[in-house]
Specification:
The protein is an alpha+beta fold. It is 33% helix and 31% strand. The structure holds nickel (II) ion.
């Protein structure tokens, strides 16, 4: 399931991110690509240990911890430190699936990539092309969101970024290991969670709310890997 996460960063935060990134040195994006995806990857990237990338990445992680839509959708266990990339002058990233296991350089820790995330840092009108296209069982989905918004999608999905033919597309991208490894289980938990929230708004005193919330937590307890 593809899940948009609106307003991860405010317009003011996006401006601050862009000022810091525009002052920084970018390198060839092949540095974090696997053998196969390096052949189709053509963009620029901030080095993983660059102080600006580390500082902005921590701000993104802090924002996500306080974002209820993200927490409900991802049920995150471990998040890879956010990386930053830029596409311009025809840059693109051909069809690929992200590496399944990644090592966090700073800690040596490994994470299984259950979910991939792209946080848009350029407004859609700043560039042409650059859509993130994700394939799932329901077909192909083209994603281009306002600056500060993010998309969460299963890392098992084939995806690509269409060529940027005007302007620059700056974004943050990263992966996470969820407490719920299986995408179908995670989607059902999210649907149940959303239904309980709606019921709580419409009928706040309905006694079944307690039962349904109990079912949600018992399913989470049953499936969670922590
Ligand atoms: Ni990818």
């Amino acid at each position: 399931m593809l899940i948009p996460i609106p307003d991860v960063l405010s317009p003011q935060e996006v401006r601050e991110f862009r000022e810091a990134l525009d002052r920084s040195q970018w390198v060839d994006g092949k540095v974090t690509a696997g053998y196969q995806s390096a052949r189709v990857k053509n963009n620029m990237q901030m080095p993983e240990n660059h102080p600006v990338a580390v500082e902005l990445g921590q701000k993104i992680l802090h924002a996500l911890q306080n974002n209820p839509v993200f927490v409900a959708a991802a049920l995150p266990k471990k998040i890879f430190p956010p990386l930053f990339n830029m596409y311009q002058g025809g840059h693109s990233f051909g069809n690929h699936i992200d590496n399944s296991v990644r090592r966090i350089a700073a800690t040596g820790e490994y994470i299984r990539t259950d979910l991939s995330m792209t946080l848009f840092l350029s407004a859609p009108e700043e560039y042409d092309g650059g859509e993130l296209v994700v394939e799932d069982t329901y077909g192909s989905h083209s994603v281009k969101l306002p600056a500060g918004h993010a998309i969460l999608y299963p890392s098992t999905s084939l995806h690509h970024v269409r060529p940027v033919t005007r302007g620059a597309r700056v974004s943050s991208f990263f992966w996470m290991q969820s407490m719920i490894r299986d995408d179908a289980q995670r989607s059902m938990l999210l649907n149940l969670d959303v239904a309980i929230q709606k019921l709580g708004q419409d009928l706040p005193n309905h006694p079944s709310l307690v039962d349904l919330t109990g079912v949600y937590h018992n399913l989470l307890r049953h499936w969670a890997e922590i």
